[in-house]
Design brief:
This protein is mostly helical. The chain has two domains: 1-72; 96-131. The chain contains one helix and no strands.
Length: 132
């Protein structure tokens, strides 16, 4: 039995040493991981600082660009509105003018027709008087 307990004791000692070695290896990797995470955190902080520093002027420039675009849009809208008003006024003037021209032409043709008919009547009456 002593041999079995001596073998068991050697196995337990080996297991203890192997466990200690594994814990040391795991601790080394954890320390390395913590160092890398610390470096990553510092890099992230510097990146955030750079982005924060550069983001302010970029946002100001973007705001100015949007203000310029808005003013151009408003100006264009105003110009299109005035153009639309001018076109509507022009169309109204042309419509009234064409109505005036049409009524004037109607009066002119009516007068011309009456004049020609009257002239023909007079001509026919004079012809009938000279024949008769």
């Amino acid at each position: 039995m002593e041999i079995l307990s001596q073998n068991a004791q050697q196995s337990l000692e080996f297991l203890i040493y192997a466990t200690i070695i594994m814990l040391i290896i795991i601790t080394v990797f954890l320390v390395k991981l913590l160092a890398d995470l610390s470096s990553l955190a510092k890099s992230t902080q510097s990146l955030v600082a750079v982005v924060k520093h550069d983001l302010g002027p970029t946002m100001k420039e973007l705001k100015r660009a949007l203000i310029n675009i808005n003013s151009i849009t408003n100006s264009t809208t105003t110009q299109f509105s005035s153009l639309n008003t001018a076109l509507n006024d022009s169309l109204n003037i042309l419509s009234h003018s064409s109505k005036g021209v049409a009524s004037g032409a109607k009066v002119l043709f009516s007068s011309l027709k009456r004049g020609v008919l009257t002239g023909l009547k007079v001509f026919l009456e004079q012809k009938n008087k000279s024949n008769g």
